[in-house]
Design goal:
Elements lengths: L9 E4 L8 E8 L4 E4 L4 E6 L8 E6 L1 E3 L3 E4 L6 E2 L1 E6 L6 E6 L9
Antiparallel strand pairs: 1-2, 1-7, 2-3, 3-6, 4-5, 7-8, 9-10
């Protein structure tokens, strides 16, 4: 299946403690159906001290399931579903993602 959510997309969180917040996708893990979103689902981890970094409790992002994310509509920033559309003719056809809410192309 084609990737509906990709690295660099602006997404809205649909459920959980960060519901309604928006962030940028840092990494997508398709094999796990999960994504890392900047500033969302922050967890605390205990870090052992090493020569390069100091020890202590570190906050970092944890993954979010793709079903709990929706791409933000480029027009108004509200959550939208994604559709696909072909642009061009013959061999020069290109498949682009389209916001179902407004019909705006997400990637050119």
């Amino acid at each position: 299946m084609a990737a509906k959510i990709r690295k660099g997309d602006k997404v809205v969180i649909l459920t959980g403690r960060d519901k309604g917040r928006t962030g940028e996708v840092i990494e997508v893990r398709p094999d796990q159906d999960r994504a890392l979103v900047r500033g969302i689902n922050m967890v605390k981890r205990h870090q052992r001290q090493s020569a390069q970094q100091e020890g202590g409790i570190v906050s970092k992002e944890s993954t979010v399931h793709l079903s709990n994310l929706a791409v933000a509509d480029p027009k108004d920033g509200k959550p939208t579903r994604i559709g696909f559309k072909f642009i061009g003719e013959g061999d020069a056809r290109k498949k682009v993602r389209v916001a179902k809410r407004s019909g705006v192309e997400i990637d050119g």
